[in-house]
């Protein structure tokens, strides 16, 4: 494990949470943030205290999916930062500090912000935590996965398209090399085509979410999320992870 005391702080906080998932994608455009947000929100509607952490510092979008403006989000300092509460959902995004202003971070800066956030947010009482990450697998994400191994399970989101499948195979190899055994696959904008691929790669296939022509019907407000016509697919996935 890293000698950085912030990682020890992160481990201490995450150990309190029975289930922690880091949601990854090998490339952009596969709907990873929508999957992260809707899985966490629907989990909270099952009366399960659930957390959603947005670690995409450059282009955070989970607040848009939930239907909140940056200025509406606030955090109370209590043994760290207490997340913003949306019913049973505890939510944290750096957007509340940047206020939609561009945040250009590189290399060590990204690593430092990620370590800081993981160590200071207080998820007390949360039973499930979903961590939304930037597309791809950066050194910073890989460092977090390696140092939090055993506490965090990766959920890889992919579409059934050929280019996406090929890049997922590379991502899986990187995760395996980092010592990650259990990798969960969620198929987005598909109909079950990736089940065979998941079996061949030794992945846990959690299910699929069908393509929705107008995804705006399902995002942008709490009422839209609650009345989304593909909600049942997310709820089915929650029973398998």
Automatic annotation (TrEMBL):
InterPro entries: NUBPL-like, P-loop_NTPase, YlxH/NBP35. Pfam families: ParA. The keyword ATP-binding applies. Keywords: ATP-binding, Nucleotide-binding. GO terms for biological process: iron-sulfur cluster assembly. GO terms for molecular function: 4 iron, 4 sulfur cluster binding; ATP binding. It comes from the Archaea. PANTHER family: IRON-SULFUR PROTEIN NUBPL. This is ATPase-like, ParA/MinD. It comes from Thermosphaera aggregans (strain DSM 11486 / M11TL).
């Amino acid at each position: 494990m890293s000698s950085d005391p912030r990682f020890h702080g992160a481990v201490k906080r995450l150990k309190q949470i029975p289930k922690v998932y880091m949601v990854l994608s090998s490339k952009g455009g596969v709907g990873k943030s929508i999957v992260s947000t809707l899985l966490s929100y629907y989990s909270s509607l099952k009366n399960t205290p659930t957390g959603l952490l947005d670690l995409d510092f450059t282009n955070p979008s989970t607040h848009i999916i939930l239907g909140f403006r940056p200025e509406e989000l606030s955090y109370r300092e209590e043994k760290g930062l207490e997340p913003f509460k949306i019913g049973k959902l505890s939510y944290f995004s750096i957007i509340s500090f940047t206020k939609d202003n561009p945040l250009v971070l590189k290399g060590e800066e990204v690593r430092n912000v990620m370590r800081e956030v993981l160590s200071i947010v207080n998820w007390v009482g949360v039973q499930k935590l979903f961590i939304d990450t930037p597309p791809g697998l950066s050194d910073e994400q890989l460092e977090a996965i390696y140092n939090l191994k055993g506490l965090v399970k990766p959920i890889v989101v992919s579409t059934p398209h050929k280019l996406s499948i090929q890049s997922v195979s590379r991502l899986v190899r990187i995760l395996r090399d980092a010592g990650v055994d259990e990798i969960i696959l969620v198929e987005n904008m598909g109909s079950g085509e990736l089940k065979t691929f998941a079996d061949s790669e030794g992945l846990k296939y959690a299910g699929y979410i069908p393509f929705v022509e107008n995804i705006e019907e399902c995002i942008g407000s709490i009422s839209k999320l609650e009345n989304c016509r593909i909600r049942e697919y997310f709820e089915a996935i929650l029973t398998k992870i």
